[in-house]
Amino acid sequence: MPEASIHFLTIGAALSAAAAALHIACIVGGPAWYRALGAGEKMAQMAESGSWYPAIVTFGICVALTVWAAYALSGAGVLPRLPLLRIILCAITAVYVLRGLAVVPMMIMMPGRSTVFWGWSSAICMTIGIVHVLGLRQAWASL
After folding, report:
1. Residue 30: DSSP 8-state
2. With CB atoms 3.0 to 4.6 Å apart as the test, which of 30, 62, 74, 96 could cross-link to 23 if both were Cys?
3. What is the pLDDT of residues 56-77, one digit of tens each?
4. Where do the structural domains in the chain lie, given as residue ranges?
5. Helical (H) or strand (E) element with 16
């Protein structure tokens, strides 16, 4: 596998892992972190009231992001080959890109978050998606 493909998929894995770590920090940091990271006032208030819902949802997102990081590392050849590698990496990439593009529909479907949050989170998702697209393109023959 060429060095460049390892580079982009490894970067994609690191970005997914960093997002997973931020979600864990949100759980540990509590309501202030939910607010600071743009989870919405409702999630922050539920966390304040002792509800487990915010932590469960946030942990679920963390698990998904960690699995996505593992698939990117597998595609880079850092981890052993995971099942359905090509299909799942394409799906992960599509989710990131579509989330990056879906800023307006997301704002409508999930009101209560700032436009700054939607702008930044969409830009971050699009960036991670582009990194995955580049990694897929470079590693495609070996997937």
Report:
1. -
2. 62
3. 999 999 999 999 999 999 999 9
4. 3-142
5. helix 3-29
The tokens for 42 are: 């409702």
Nearest to 65 by CA among 106, 112, 26, 104: 26
Are 92 and 73 within 8 A, CB to CB? no
pTM summary value:
0.91
From the list 118, 101, 139, the residue with the least C-alpha distance to 12 is 139
pLDDT in tens, 35-53: 999 888 899 999 999 999 9
